[in-house]
Write a structure and sequence with these properties.
Order of helices and strands: HEHHHE
CATH class: Alpha Beta
Shape: globular
CATH superfamily: NAD(P)-binding Rossmann-like Domain
CATH architecture: 3-Layer(aba) Sandwich
Radius of gyration: 16 Å
Helix content: 40-55%
Strand order of the largest sheet: 1-2
Number of strands: 2
Number of helices: 4
């Protein structure tokens, strides 16, 4: 339970940092966006100690997971918006991901 609270606190701290940075820089025409990816299939799983069995069991409930290119496409979209349009936050998740 405690680890779950730390995850929430850390996520809130990053969001606060990004919002503070956005407020400081928006008057200079700089856009700052928090991109929050869901579960992405990448080398991270191996580095974090997951193997095919335990990660496969965990991720099977979410259906098709995101690929790094899916996140890149979301960032590309952000960068192509007109200069007067600002998106504060974007969450990109697999369609079947039911939790944050």
């Amino acid at each position: 339970m405690r680890a779950n609270y730390l995850w929430i606190i850390t996520k809130f701290a990053v969001a606060g940092l990004v919002e503070g940075l956005r407020r400081e820089l928006c008057g200079h025409g700089v856009r700052v966006t928090l991109v929050m990816p869901g579960i992405v299939t990448s080398e991270f799983q191996q580095v974090a100690g997951y193997d095919e069995k335990n990660f496969g069991t965990f991720s099977a409930q979410f259906g098709t997971l995101l690929e790094p290119g899916d996140i890149a496409e979301g960032i590309r979209w952000l960068l192509t918006l007109p200069a007067h349009v600002h998106v504060n936050e974007v969450t990109i998740r697999p369609t079947g991901q039911s939790y944050p």
